[in-house]
Amino acid sequence: FGIYKCGFCGNEFKANTYDINRGNTRSCGCYQKRRTSKSNKIHGLCSTRLYTIWSKLKDRVLNPKDKQYNDYGGRGITICEEWLDIQNFYDWAMKNEYSDELSIDRIDNDGNYCPENCRWTTSTIQNRNQRKRRDNTSGYKGVCYNKETGRYRARIDVNKKQIYLGQFLTAVEGAIAYNNYIIENNLEGFILNEIPTECL
With b meaning 16 or more CB within 10 Å and e meaning fewer, what string describes 113-140? Predict the structure, then answer.
């Protein structure tokens, strides 16, 4: 650590020498406050819930240091150029049924943050719209291999209740059972498994 003179206001401040040399720290803190204040004067949104949502989604797709980056930006998901301006994001939200009880959700879980692929939903619907788990080796959501029986087990979680759909000889059969349950019960928000045409 060392004592440095702020190039923006002239005040002295204590900072990590490494951060100074790398350019990570450029002021005593007044620069960021000045930028935030200026930004807030322009759009007046910095203290709103929408600004927080916008800021966090930008970080997870654009900032490699963000703890969620690997699940978003790290796998190719980004934000459209239009939404880099908070005012545009705010205008879209207001025209698309935003409320403080809802969260932003990507319709295509592998798609980008943009008007065509986003909506405001409840946490229940959002939880349903998730890609398959990383440790899933079956290749299909809701289907896992049961070593004890040598078969594939299918199940689905609905309103915090786990529903058993049966055991099948192949993963595809389990995936079809998963899809059929969603369709037959008209469940909103769930992603259907993509089944190879030759298996239908």
Answer: beeebbbbbeeebbebbeebeeeeebeb
